[in-house]
Input
Amino acid sequence: MADIQGFYDDLFIAVPRALAELLDGGDAGGSVAVFVDGEPVVDVWGGFADAGRTVPLERDTIVNVWSVTKTMTALAALVLADRGELDPDAPVARYWPEFAAAGKDGVLVRHLLSHTAGLPDWDGPVEEIYDWTSATARLAARAPRWEPGSAAGYHSLTQGFLVGEVLRRITGVSVGEFFAGEVAGPLGADFHIGLAAEHDGRVALAVPPPGYGEDYTAGAAGGGAGGSGDGTADGSTPAGTAVRLRDGNSVAWRRAQIPAASGFGNARSVALVQSVMACGGTVNGVRLLSGKGCDRAWEEQFSGVDRILGMPVRYGLGYGLFGTTYGWGGWGGSLVMIEPESRTVVAYVTQQMREPAADNRGLEIVMAAYDGLLGLRG
Output
């Protein structure tokens, strides 16, 4: 059995076992954290940080978690809403006047957070997403694909720029700077949107699924909690520009702020940050927002079939809703799930991609964690 590092409460022994099974099954590396009441009951990692499997994955190894980054950007928006600086029901153009172009004067902030704004695809060159001014100007000039608020279509890359520019207009700083100063910094969380060069040595680059190379693109079945979170239901590439694995592994990607898809961290940091949402806005004495502010994430904005993912979804304000939990998953398999009732967060982070249609790893980890939660409750 694969060697698993870290610690866990004995009630949660199923979690490290599940991670070991994934590594034994061929995964290069991964980490899992379970936080209850803002404290870790599981913090484990194992495997390798490189595709050649020569460098062990360490406690402080970080990876690109892709669309799990959306939950971090959403939390930042909810913090501003809780402070009264951002109104989810306000027109986007109140904060970003140029956005009103091409008939978008009726698009509300909540439409951006719930994938209902009608701007789901990135239709420019990949290189332009590294330039914040160019990327946001392109989106501001576009017309929506449908009547905003009437339908949902997963805004894989665009959501981060849309929400992020509203946050920048309000705060005067980038999403990454706001997140670092107002969220990650106070919590002591090792999560970054826009990665400084000093951290490059800790990054485990994404490893494509078996049989694929660096030109593997975002697409294929099952977005949201268990799948890629970045593709269409029939295995085709979403409309617009496809992002390749080599793009996500590039230095340019790490340096850029792509608040829907370029967050770097590990399971510990993801679980720590999102424990704020599970624990009514306060973790370890650090209060980021009120309980009422956290509850906004639960406010259903859309329920039905997502036009891009081709599957039934429920979207709250910045998070996917799944029964008694909410959260989101990323291309490649990383995932975070939040359950406020038990004040629990489960995070799984991996650089090892699998084909989305057959990737249930995150859900397997969540189910293993629930075995431990049942023991706690019992």
